[in-house]
Amino acid sequence: MTRRSSIGVMAAGFAMGGTAMAQGRPWHMPAEEERHDATVMQWPVSREVHPDAGFLRDLQIAIADIANTISEFEPVIVLMPADARTLLAQDVTIWDIPTEDLWARDSGPVFLLDGSGGRAVTGFNFNGWGGKQGHVHDGQIARRVAARMGLSYIDSPVVGEAGGLEQDGAGLVMAHESSWINDNRNPGMTREEVETGILSTIGADRMIWAPGLAGYDITDYHIDALARFTAPGRVLIQLPETADPADPFSVAAYQTRDVLRDAGLRLTELAEPWNTRITTDDLVASYVNYYVCNGGVIAAQFGDRRADRAARRTLAALYPDREVVMLNVDPLGEVGGGIHCATQQMPSA
Q1: Which of 117, 186, 191, 271 is deepest in the core (most CB within 10 A)?
Q2: Catalytic residue, candidates 38, 235, 284, 341
């Protein structure tokens, strides 16, 4: 495993932010593959969200495993109570910012750069995936992180989640309409209005929409569990063996594939696992919900030896300069997410 730089988080990530004003600066969200100063994660604590104390502990163990693994490659900041770090490696930094749940991709800060050493924070006005979950604290995390770092917070005109979009850092975004053109997030807004809001928030200029699937899971089918940019113009997509008319997710997945292919993107297809350790119908068993960090790709494995090996080979081929590490994070899959959902990168300014 390639160890991260020994430069501390404070020195590497937070001395340069300052209080740069948002107005008049061309902010943009870099690609995930670009170098990071840190990874931000959230500690799940809410018994209202996770009433089973034993399962909540399983989630915390999984989050600690992800954080400790990433910390071998780059600094990690976990938002959590300062007295609750027993599962975390000593080089993981704790910020005492209150949370409810673990989904830093959706409720955490989205970092923007201006190309001149400036950094700002934005977010998509997290509302619990359309009011499906309480978010007294999670709805404030992005702004609180910005205040903690002394950075400008740039408001977005739309409501949604960063896990509901994928962007290549070169101006192109892809998303499912079901997660954005939805009255539970952006009532009364047209697709064109939502698109303009997304693009202006992250400094992109082009958008590809696929239909997605509303109402079947808490996210209304976030695209980052299905398809990911691996480079400008290139996408990795995970597909079931066939589009089963009895399975709306499989139908929607193939619809997305067709849209992306027709848009001229170069696709790499990856098969779903079948012989998984967890066999519940609502398990999210997504290999593409991986996280790219400095020198590493952190992905899930599900106990299907053939599919796990194939996923590792595919990721190694797509990211030849990074080490692929695969973890058992089944508790996250049981509650509808994965490693990418639980992380948010802080790009180097």
Answers
A1: 186
A2: 341
